[in-house]
Write a structure and sequence with these properties.
Length: 305
């Protein structure tokens, strides 16, 4: 089934080149179908890239999705054209009275700051509270996962001595739950972060369940409230070249950065990446949409609470 996207969103052209079926607003409005309303709070600097990465994964579901893009009012993006933000994004304040079947909150390049030091932290806490009564299921990614675990459950983040950077094997700890339907015994997930949440802190909170982790990269997935909150510390949505772009960017800036682990063919940047995470990334988002959004959300969206 197609994705319903705002007309002229740049991701449409990118995804059509990949033979992904997308539907403009005008044509979608002529169909008598109740699509799932999905809102993406995009905190990443390169917003068009992140939009495309996420929409690519969401496109694999047989369900029709109505995609909305949210931004925080307290932060102005420096890496995305103002015209793009005005055309496709709405402030949370203008969306707070709406309800959504699913929500994705992305990572953000603010790991080095304590949470209250983030300029938009107050607005983030309002969004976290709002989501609990206005969204059926929320997927928190990377920094958002750490921030959500801290705000809702008091789980602290800890600085790493070296950036967790690369592709790391993960083990499902509850392989029979729906989010892992169709998964192998080991799956791979990109990570790119300077901080972590730790098992011993999470285990102190009875409401939280660690559902996937890695010997190398630590806790990767945590679930709460029966799947209404899913926290993912890595980036299953990353496209093949994302880590390469980050690596070369930091090298050009003279920053201390090691090659991403388990990423390049024969560990050689000149040979390009060996993609090992894409299949499970697609499956992760498809399972989330099917089992935690579509099968749990009420038909009358106003009944979400």
């Amino acid at each position: 089934m197609p994705l319903r996207l705002p007309d002229k969103l740049p991701a449409i052209d990118f995804l059509k080149d990949e033979n992904i079926f997308v539907l403009g607003t005008e044509r979608a409005n002529s169909q008598d179908i109740r699509p799932l309303r999905i809102v993406i709070l995009n905190l990443m600097p390169l917003k068009i890239t992140t939009e495309t990465d996420l929409i690519r994964l969401l496109s694999n579901t047989p369900l029709q999705l109505d995609i909305h893009l949210m931004k925080v009012k307290a932060h102005t993006s420096k890496n995305t054209p103002v015209e793009h933000m005005k055309a496709f994004y709405r402030d949370f304040e203008k969306m707070r009275h709406e309800k959504f079947d699913g929500m994705i909150i992305t990572g953000a390049p603010v790991e080095h700051l304590d949470y209250p030091e983030v300029t938009y932290w107050q607005e983030m806490t309002e969004i976290f509270d709002w989501a609990r009564t206005h969204v059926t299921s929320v997927m928190y990614i990377c920094w958002a996962a750490q921030a959500g675990l801290y705000y809702h459950y008091g789980v602290p983040k800890h600085p790493l001595s070296q950036k967790m950077f690369g592709i790391f094997p993960q083990v499902p700890l509850s392989p029979r739950i729906p989010i892992f339907r169709g998964f192998d015994d080991v799956f791979y997930m990109p990570h790119s972060r300077h901080t972590e949440v730790r098992r011993e802190d999470i285990e102190k909170v009875p409401a939280l369940e660690i559902i996937a982790e890695s010997e190398q990269s630590g806790v990767s997935m945590v679930m709460a409230r029966g799947g209404r909150e899913i926290f993912v510390t890595g980036h299953s949505e990353y496209s093949p070249m994302t880590l390469d772009t980050e690596y070369r960017r930091d090298l050009a800036k003279g920053l201390p950065i090691q090659k991403p682990v388990n990423y390049y063919r024969n560990d050689d940047p000149q040979q390009g990446p060996l993609v090992t995470w894409r299949a499970h990334g697609n499956l992760l988002f498809t399972n989330w949409l099917n089992y935690y959004v579509y099968q749990e959300t009420p038909y009358n969206i106003d009944d979400i609470h």
